[in-house]
Amino acid sequence: MPRSTAIARPLPASRAPAIEWDRVLPELDAAGHAVVPGLLDADECAAVTRFYDKPEIFRSHIVMQRHGFGQGEYRYFAYPLPEIVARLREHAYPPLARLANTWNERLGAAVEYPSTLAAFTAQCHARGQKRATPLLLKYGPGDYNRLHQDLYGDIYFPIQLVVLLSEPGRDFAGGEFVLTELKPRMQSRVDVVPLRQGDACLFAVNHHPAKGTRGYYRAGMRHGVSQVRSGHRMTLGIIFHDAR
């Protein structure tokens, strides 16, 4: 079966990506995650991958094993973000903010996310969260990322995005993107999300509302990457809140 394309070939300065939000948002709402096929094409994946060799555009370099995060490394971009990263972030935020506000209503949370990324970023900065959080992650043979949540301060946006920049089976083996969902008084459910080069996954950062017999409740979410058996795997991570 041919793979569908969820985005018109992006991201010249004049054009924004055309994500099929009518499909993606209901899937994200129901399961806490959704796949966006073909968010970037092969040339764009290669261009983003090459950013890793430009240390001047990053604010920090993290070696995972030094912190107990797993094995591998990643770099956080500095502001201003590269154009392609900034445009993906700015375009994805408004529809995700609408869903995030629906989630807050269901869970009885008083927080309301503004309609634009600029307004949300201003809220982060007012609370001392001023460091950019989009990042590039690099894995080699034996590397992995432990299950975790990306929370960087008092304010966080409840949905984030990852884009696989490498091609499974050609560039690497293993290294599956893994999500776990924990519901109260139940064991965790695990999803191994199949991604190809250029595919993205939108997923809940901390928790999402799940419907039970007595209404909605918080289903906790964590994400990680299984061990890379061979080759090299690169990923772009787009987090919408800034860090302290």
CATH class: Mainly Beta
**Count of the separate structural domains:** 1
SSE order = HEHEHEEHHEEEEEEEEEEE
- Overall shape: it is globular
- The order of strands across the largest sheet is 1-11-7-15-5-4-2
Give the helix/strand class: alpha+beta
- The CATH architecture term is Sandwich
Give me the Rg, rounded.
Answer: 17 Å
Parts with pLDDT < 50 across at least 5 consecutive residues: 1-16
Q: What is the share of helical residues?
A: 10-25%
Mean model confidence by pLDDT? 92
CATH topology name: Jelly Rolls
Helical stretch tally: 5
Major β-sheet profile: 7 strands, antiparallel
* CATH 4th-level superfamily: q2cbj1_9rhob like domain
How far from one another are the termini?
Answer: 45 Å
Our estimate of the beta-strand percent is 25-35%
Number of strands: 15
Primary descriptors:
single chain, 244 residues, alpha+beta, Jelly Rolls, 7-stranded antiparallel sheet, 6-stranded antiparallel sheet
Structural write-up:
The structure is a single chain. The longest helix is centred in the middle third of the chain and has 25 residues, at 83-107. The chain has one domain: Jelly Rolls (Sandwich). The protein has a 7-stranded antiparallel β-sheet with strand order 1-11-7-15-5-4-2. With 244 residues, it is of the alpha+beta class. The chain starts with 20 loop residues before the first helix and ends in a 6-residue tail after the last strand. Mean pLDDT is 92; it is low at 1-16. Helix content is 24%, strand content 32%. It is built from 5 helices and 15 strands. It has helices at residues 21-31, 42-50, 64-67, 83-107, 117-126; strands at residues 33-36, 58-63, 70-71, 73-77, 135-139, 144-148, 159-164, 172-174, 177-182, 189-193, 200-204, 207-212, 215-225, 228-231, 233-238.
